[in-house]
Each structure stands twice: as structure tokens, then as C-alpha cells.
Design brief:
The protein has eight helices and 15 strands. By secondary structure, the protein is α+β, with helices and mostly antiparallel strands. It has one domain: Arylamine N-acetyltransferase fold (2-Layer Sandwich). The strands form three sheets. The chain has an eight-stranded antiparallel sheet with strand order 5-4-3-2-9-8-7-6. Strands 1-10-11-12-13 form a five-stranded antiparallel sheet, covered by helices on one side. A two-stranded antiparallel sheet has the order 14-15. Helix 4 crosses helix 5 (63-76). The longest helix has 14 residues, at 63-76. It is globular, with a radius of gyration of 18 Å. The protein starts with a helix and ends in a 7-residue tail after the last strand.
Length: 268
């Protein structure tokens, strides 16, 4: 069982928050980050490890960690939660089939069914969406919708060029062992983007979205519904940015320029 009081304190809420309140507080309090797979550390999905890392150590995590932690909290609040696996479509060539490397939650609450996801980086919805095709839904100026594409439901968001696919998933619950397998692939496969690159993101309470990536050179990006500002930064500044902009102190760069964990508040 999750230490619900510690979790709620971590996300800054009290009492018995609703599904929407819990989702919104989680996604704006716990950063998205792949620092462990990026530095060659396997990602454990055991409940005690999730709580130690994301709650006790005030770290972040990626989709499997984030959404499993949310699932445990929602179940402690009396809700029923199903696990669904999705294929990320962002950046995929037309017709490409990617692995099911993203975890989504289907939540039964208040006589309705909801699509919940606090683990898709800067594109995570602030609050749950009604499950199934529908929308558009506007949250802090950001627009989402869900469309049917054959056997899959596809989450989209609206950009300057129009509606864009984020990920697609079959609306069928999967067993925990399938999640463990997908997590192992995502955290350890030598061509996984979570192994080869750095991805850190934070959804802010005012609706802005901040990210740090080294995909096309190291850059810090801040997005609002109206604008995007991308600032190239030196790789040597990554530890300081992790600490000052994402609340992730205690990292440094090793001699090869990769992320390593050092003493708390050690920037270099």
C-alpha cells in the first residue's frame, strides 16, 4: 500500500482530493525525467522503489514510474484503475509501427470513465479526459482530443500546423507483466531514446511547459499555448539547470559528458 499522506504532501494537496485535483497536482509537482536510463541505471517499478525515488527523494521519472505511482494513489483513494499500453506517434514516419512503450491509465470515478496520464512529458494533459473519442478539450489554453483510428484510440493535441498525434492505444487493459516488459525495453534497449538521449520536462501550474533535451544539441525550451522559446545551452550547464529549473539537484557530468549522480547540490 502506498503511503498516501506522504504522496499527497509531495504533490501539495490534503484530505481526499478528487481525481482531477490529484492528476493536476501530480503533473505539476513531479518532473518528467529519464536520468536513470540515460546513465545506465535500470528502472524498478516496485512500489517501494517508486515511492522512495519520486516521493522520498523528490526525483522525477518517466511514464511507467509516474503513472504507476498515480495508480497506487488513486486506488488508495478508492478508485478503480486499469493499465493500458500505447504506441508513441510523435515524430514517427507515416506507416511506422513503434513498440508499446507508453503507459496510460483508464480510471473509473464518479460514475464515469477517464483517460489519465501524468507521464507524457510536456504534452501530458493537466487533468483527465473523458475516455474514448471526443473533444476538443481545452486545459490552460492547450487543446486535446481523442479520435478513433481503426482499433486504436489516438490522443492528439493542437499545434500551429493543426491536430497532431501523440500516441495511440487499444482500449484493452493489460496485465502488469506486459508493463514490466515494456519498461525493461524502454529503459535498457540500446536504441531507446530514453537510453540514448536526455529528456527532462516540467508542466507548470500556470500552464507553461519547460523542457531540457539534447536531441538536436542541448537546449532549454519553454512553451505556452501562444509561443515557444528555445535557448541553446552548454552541456556543462546541465547539472545546474537540473537543480535550478527542475528541482533535481545532486547530478554532475562524468568525463564523457554523460549524467552521473554525485553529492547533493553538486553541479559539476
Amino acid at each position: 500500500m502506498i503511503d498516501l499522506d506522504a504522496y499527497l504532501k509531495r504533490i501539495g494537496v490534503r484530505g481526499r482530493p478528487s481525481l482531477a485535483e490529484t492528476h493536476r497536482a501530480h503533473v505539476t509537482s513531479i518532473p518528467f525525467e529519464n536520468l536513470d536510463p540515460h546513465r545506465g541505471v535500470p528502472v524498478s517499478l516496485e512500489q517501494e522503489d517508486l515511492e522512495r525515488k519520486l516521493v522520498g527523494e523528490r526525483r522525477g521519472g518517466y511514464c511507467f514510474e509516474q503513472n504507476l505511482l498515480l495508480k497506487a494513489a488513486l486506488e488508495a483513494l478508492g478508485l478503480r484503475v486499469d493499465l493500458l499500453l500505447a504506441r508513441v506517434r510523435v515524430g514517427a514516419p507515416a506507416g511506422a509501427i513503434r513498440p508499446r512503450s507508453h503507459l496510460v491509465l483508464r480510471v473509473h470515478a464518479d460514475g464515469a470513465i477517464w483517460h489519465a496520464d501524468v507521464g507524457f512529458g510536456t504534452d501530458s494533459p493537466f487533468e483527465p479526459l473523458p475516455f474514448g473519442p471526443g473533444g476538443p478539450f481545452e486545459q490552460f489554453g492547450w487543446r486535446y482530443r481523442v479520435v478513433q483510428d481503426g482499433p486504436e484510440l489516438v490522443l492528439q493535441n493542437y499545434r500551429e500546423s493543426g491536430w497532431a498525434d501523440l500516441y495511440g492505444y487499444a482500449p484493452e487493459a493489460v496485465p502488469r507483466v506486459d508493463v514490466e516488459t515494456s519498461n525493461w525495453f524502454t529503459a535498457t534497449h540500446p536504441r531507446s531514446p530514453f537510453v540514448t538521449g536526455l529528456i527532462v520536462a516540467q508542466v507548470r501550474r500556470d500552464g507553461a511547459r519547460l523542457s531540457l533535451s539534447d536531441r538536436d544539441g542541448v537546449a532549454l525550451a519553454e512553451r505556452t499555448p501562444d509561443r515557444e522559446m528555445v535557448t541553446p545551452v552548454a552541456r556543462e550547464s546541465i547539472p545546474e539547470l537540473l537543480a535550478s529549473r527542475f528541482g533535481l539537484p545532486g547530478f554532475r557530468l562524468d568525463q564523457d559528458g554523460r549524467i552521473a549522480q554525485g553529492a547533493m547540490n553538486e553541479y559539476g
